[in-house]
Fold this sequence. Notes:
The complex is a heterodimer.
Chain A: H1 2-16, E1 21-27, H2 36-43, E2 48-54, E3 59-64, H3 72-81, E4 85-92, H4 96-105
Antiparallel strand pairs in A: 1-3, 1-4, 2-3
Chain B: H1 5-16, E1 33-41, E2 45-55, E3 58-68, E4 75-91, E5 96-110, E6 116-129, E7 133-144, E8 147-158, E9 169-179, E10 187-197, E11 200-207, E12 212-219
Antiparallel strand pairs in B: 1-2, 1-12, 2-3, 3-4, 4-5, 5-6, 6-7, 7-8, 8-9, 9-10, 10-11, 11-12
Amino acid sequence: MKIKHLLFALTLLCANGHAATIEMTVNGLVCGFCAQGIEKTLRKNPATADVFVSLENRLVAILTKDGADIADAELRKALTDAGYDVKAIERTQHSMSELRSRAKAGK
Amino acid sequence: MNLSFGRLALSTALALGIACGTAAAKPIAFADGTTVMAEYGAGTMTELQAFYAPTFRYSLGGGHLSLNSAETDNTRDITYLRLNYLPKRWNLESAQANVFVWGGAGRAHVGETGDNLFTWNAGGQVDYETRRVYASLRTDYYDASAFSHRIDTLQLGIAPYAHDYETLAVWFVVQAREYTGGLYDGTEWAALVRLFKHNAWLEAGATRDGKLQAMLMFNF
């Protein structure tokens, strides 16, 4: 019984206390110099903990702060205002270091 | 042998199978971005510019352009304010293409007469780029009561590798430039190396006359 309570408490803790990764597929990402505006815009959002951009994978990824999220409409507006087109948005459990490693490995 | 610029641009574009367009320095960086640029153009032109873009569609700012004729002793020093506008962008899966237009006005000091004149300017740029190839065609026109000059610049570039967001980008660029109004006879060819990473951009090389052609740019 005590173990069940403990496991239940741990589950609640994990469900409410973790940061999430938002991965966006973006068109027009061909120039790192020009794409600086994406990172600048996204880092202004108070929910943003980290930003990763990969031209190879057409990827803009945001790590949100614990318990925070950014609405899809807000994300699309941020990228559109930066001059790019968002093709897809998904929320994953990939860590930023995992995404960076994957990009480095050319996957 | 001198080629007319129009024939040069058309033949080059046809050879590459693309419409005119190059990924040269863009007059608008990104929303809430500031761009500062300095260019030394083989002694014929030297230019400083600074622009702020409230949105990705337009930027405002100004610059100073010095023109020194390679053929005569004529000089012009032009200080101007300018509005840049991006009427069209195509964001493709692995490419981007842009159309920019701009216009403004300012004051020109004419070296050979000492006169200070009102001057207006207008121009445009089309560009197309992937992470490995780019092309741009740009035209700048300056007009005052005592002179009018147009500067047309074609750039074609190729990258030895596809850079990514956090790596150094290296490009090899061929540039062809023509001036009107007695500034330079014929087509000025230059071979350049372009490097950029994060918010810094450096482009440098030489013309066929052995003169320095260089540009330095920062985005903030």
